[in-house]
Structures are given as structure tokens and as C-alpha cells.
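Figure 6 in text form: structure in, sequence out.
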């Protein structure tokens, strides 16, 4: 098959006068998670201490709480967060007008990694409070003229 004269250079080699019309990109995140601490209120601590916390007022109800690491630092973590995002792009050109169509897919693997835990000690201790959002798709265009 012969190439049009506009795409053939002086020595017969093929020249590319336009950028690629299809592009694809992606990103993969593998982030470590944070450690675990707990917050205790005076009503939880006072029975074991036999007194109120030092920050409590001398009279009246004490609503003070204190944050305590109940697990040694850097020893208990949630599973690593894994997320794969992909973008597909198609370029169109018609005279002086250029159109770029994009399709973005976030969280392709539909991973449900835990983003936040309940760290207050009690019945809901270490219950997930937030997880990675589910897979979603975004469509976009860009027009240059």
C-alpha cells in the first residue's frame, strides 16, 4: 500500500505530522493506613481510677475526655488501600476545530478499603466509619477552536 505524498519524507521514510489520536493513562495507589488510638471519657476512666480526671472541675458533672493509645504506635494497621484509576482519550480534528473526548473510570477494581475507623473505645471500637467510594465513570469533552 502506498502512502500519500504528504506523509512520505524526502528519503522515503514515513513522517507523522499529527500527534497520536488515541491515548490512555492510569494511576495505581497503594497507600499505607493510619494507626489506632482511642478516646476515653471520664465516666469510663473514673471507676478504675477511683476519682475523676485531673481536668475535671471540682464540683458538678465532668464531661472531660482523654485520648490514649491503647495499641503501641505503629503496630496495628488496616489493610493497605489499593485503587486503580484509568482515563481513555480520543482526539478528533475537523479543520481548525479539535475535540478531545475523555472517559475516566475511578476505582476500576471496585475496592472497598477502609478509610476511617471508629477509634473511640466501646461497643463500636474499630468499626469502619468511611470506605473507599465505589467505582464510578466520568465522561468529558474539550473543544479547541
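Output sequence:
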Amino acid at each position: 500500500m502506498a502512502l500519500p505524498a504528504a506523509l512520505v519524507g524526502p528519503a522515503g521514510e514515513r513522517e507523522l505530522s499529527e500527534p497520536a489520536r488515541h491515548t490512555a493513562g492510569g494511576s495505581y495507589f497503594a497507600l499505607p493506613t493510619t494507626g489506632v488510638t482511642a478516646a476515653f471519657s471520664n465516666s469510663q476512666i473514673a471507676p478504675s481510677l477511683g476519682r475523676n480526671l485531673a481536668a475535671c472541675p471540682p464540683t458538678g458533672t465532668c464531661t472531660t475526655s482523654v485520648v490514649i493509645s491503647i495499641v503501641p504506635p505503629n503496630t496495628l494497621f488496616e489493610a493497605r488501600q489499593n485503587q486503580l484509576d484509568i482515563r481513555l482519550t480520543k482526539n478528533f480534528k475537523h479543520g481548525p476545530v479539535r475535540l478531545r473526548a475523555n472517559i475516566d473510570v475511578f476505582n476500576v477494581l471496585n475496592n472497598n478499603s477502609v478509610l476511617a475507623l471508629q477509634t473511640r473505645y466501646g461497643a463500636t471500637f474499630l468499626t469502619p466509619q468511611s470506605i473507599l467510594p465505589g467505582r464510578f465513570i466520568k465522561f468529558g469533552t474539550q473543544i479547541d477552536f
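Caption detail: Residues 21-53+62-144 form one domain.
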